[in-house]
Write a structure and sequence with these properties.
The chain is of the alpha+beta class and 467 residues long. The strands form three sheets. The protein has a seven-stranded mixed beta sheet, with helices on both faces. A five-stranded antiparallel beta sheet has the order 2-3-8-5-6. Helix 2 crosses helix 11 and helix 4 crosses helix 10. The radius of gyration is 24 Å and the shape is globular.
């Protein structure tokens, strides 16, 4: 069982125990006080739960985040006096800047999202943390080098305060715009969620999508389609999205490739490399129907078998053709999605023995083990570092600043993705309404899907290693 599943199982067990204890308490109130009191309190308690306790947070807000940044990152002297932060070291302006600081929420920060507001030289940002936060956190100051060095960067806690002496971590900038970039997307929309700003600015970009993403097609079943037929339609639509949407950022169709393997079947393929892993829901064992929009043939087209061996052959052919200098793919520790883990493993295995090797690896996390709301806060806010409670490996952070125009273009790209268009279930919409009224959370202006809030931000955040 994966760590994510273990945490979710523990969370659900604790939730059931909490619900049982609450019901016993309400029953006792009804028996020994007023019979009508439980009927009055039950909807109030449910609304309070949905507004303040419905987030999936698999750690306590009082735990410290832990990071090791590696040899590319160094600590720079910094002072925080009366809310003004000043760096006492020269900065070039293109660095990734991370401020390690202890954040402590006040009593209101247990009901409303605590955040740190940053202002200086006409620039403004907000970065949000867990309700009840009381530990070490990492603010992303990338793009704020000028006011930071001038000593005019103001930090203000909203529903929280900053404690102790901060530490500033500096990672030198890396040239990305003039290099060949290949983004590995396990599913259509992963490239846009994580790296639209990056790949839209690169001189030459390739977008390679590994799976058709055909499962969970209930929205298309409402049209009167059967399960398998709806899954096939969804897979065709997402295959089209993976080829067409990058054109919005200027990526030629000739550099967009859909490999058409089946969603959530990459782990089975990896476990038995020569055995085909058919689709769970589409009643298909041939990947070629989802490859019809590709600009050129690939090794897997010969037999269309969904095997790990074919996946490696496809990736090797693409790597040799594109010769990317920068590879962008899911983070092997931070992102727990099984297809994301296997996507990274497949690319690293495909690279073994190739004459061409990329120079830089950038990893992203579109899903987290511990907090399904990260990045916390609203659309347009900055992206603080995600929760990590054990620093097992050293990675250098690499953050890009997206202009407002790029953020809007990214939102439009996400809006073109069919998978982000259906309305949320009624319960989720009601929960968001209660959170808006009672907890002050704002909806994204770009769309209803949660990824519009999470992904359309001032920063794109990656983890960098030189290969």
């Amino acid at each position: 069982m994966s760590r994510k599943q273990q945490l979710l199982k523990r969370h659900r067990r604790n939730k059931r125990l909490g619900v049982l204890a609450s019901l016993v308490l309400l029953l006792a109130l009804g028996l020994f006080a007023w019979w009508w009191l439980p009927l009055l309190l039950l909807p109030v308690l449910w609304a309070a739960h949905e507004a303040w306790f419905a987030d999936h947070l698999f750690y306590t807000p009082g735990e410290d985040y832990a990071y090791r940044f590696g040899e590319h990152t160094h600590e720079a002297p910094v002072t925080l006096r009366e809310g003004v932060l000043k760096a006492d070291a020269p900065l070039q302006g293109d660095e990734t800047l991370v401020l390690e600081v202890r954040v402590k929420s006040n009593w209101l920060g247990r009901l409303l999202d605590p955040r740190v507001e940053l202002q200086g030289a006409g620039l403004a940002d907000r970065q949000t943390f867990e309700r009840g936060v009381a530990g070490v956190r990492y603010l992303n100051l990338t793009g704020l080098a000028a006011p930071l060095q001038a000593g005019s960067l103001r930090l203000r806690g909203r529903h929280c305060r900053l404690q102790g002496e901060p530490r500033l971590w500096v990672t030198p900038g890396v040239e990305l715009q003039r290099r060949r970039v290949m983004v590995i997307a396990p599913h259509a929309d992963d490239a846009e969620l994580a790296a639209y700003g990056l790949y839209s600015q690169a001189e030459e970009t390739w977008v390679v999508t590994l799976t058709a993403g055909e499962i969970e097609a209930e929205h298309y079943q409402q049209m009167g389609l059967g399960n398998a037929e709806a899954a096939r339609l969804k897979g065709r639509l997402r295959a089209w999205d993976s080829i067409a949407v990058p054109r919005w950022a200027g990526v030629p169709e000739a550099r967009c490739v859909q490999l058409g393997y089946f969603c959530l079947q990459l782990p089975a393929m990896q476990a038995a490399p020569g055995q085909p892993a058919a689709s769970r829901e589409a009643d298909m064992a041939d990947i070629r129907p989802f490859r019809q929009f590709n600009p050129f043939p690939l090794p897997g087209d010969q037999d269309g078998a969904p095997t790990w061996q074919n996946l490696l052959a496809d990736l090797r052919a693409l790597l040799e053709l594109a010769r990317p200098e920068v590879l962008v793919m899911p983070h092997p520790q931070l992102d727990p999605h099984p297809d994301h883990i296997c996507a990274q493993a497949a690319v690293l295995e495909a690279l073994q023995g190739l004459a061409w090797q990329p120079q830089t690896l950038l990893c992203y996390a579109n899903h987290l083990h511990d907090n399904d709301r990260w990045p916390m806060g609203d659309s347009g806010d900055g992206v603080a570092l995600p929760p990590q409670l054990q620093a097992d490996q050293a990675w250098a952070p690499c953050s890009l600043v997206l202009s407002l125009a790029t953020q809007r273009d990214k939102a439009m790209a996400l809006g073109m993705m069919h998978d982000l268009q259906p309305s949320a279930p009624f319960k989720r919409r009601l929960r968001r309404l209660l959170q808006r009224w009672l907890a002050g959370r704002r909806p994204s202006p770009y769309g209803e899907n949660e990824f519009f809030r999470k992904a359309v931000r001032r920063h794109e955040l990656f983890w960098r290693r030189e290969l």
